[in-house]
Amino acid sequence: MYIVYWLIAENRFKTYLGFTSDLENRLKKHRTKQVKSTKDFGEFKCFIIEKAINIVQARKREKYWKSCIGRKKLEKVFKKYFNPGPIV
User: Fold this and answer.
1) Which contacts of 51-56 are long-range, i.e. CB under 8 A and separated by 24 or more positions?
2) Could you tell me which CATH number the domain at 2-81 has?
3) Tens digit of pLDDT for each residue in 13-57?
4) Which sequence spans correspond to the domains of the chain?
């Protein structure tokens, strides 16, 4: 079983989309700055987008979510993370 996940940096300016068969271990690597793409993220939130039964399906779904259409759908669903509202 594979998990397609999305990380949103606390500052809301950076995102990362990936897949893994071991989410706990993968998040540990992100948090300890062992992943080049996310080492400058700081704190982040992780969202599970979907599950895949094998690596081929996981890659296919990751590719879809990284496409323009997929990203727009994600941003629409998670709009509160991209529109923080007025600064108080």
Assistant:
1) 51/1, 51/2, 51/3, 51/4, 52/1, 52/2, 52/3, 52/4, 52/19, 53/1, 53/2, 54/2, 55/2, 55/21
2) 3.40.1440
3) 788 999 999 999 999 999 999 999 998 888 898 999 999 999 999
4) 2-81
pLDDT at 10: 82
The encoded tokens of residue 21 equal: 């068969």
Q: How many residues does the chain have?
A: 88
The structure's pTM equals 0.84
Each residue of 28-39: b (16+ CB within 10 Å) or e?
Answer: eebeeeebeebe
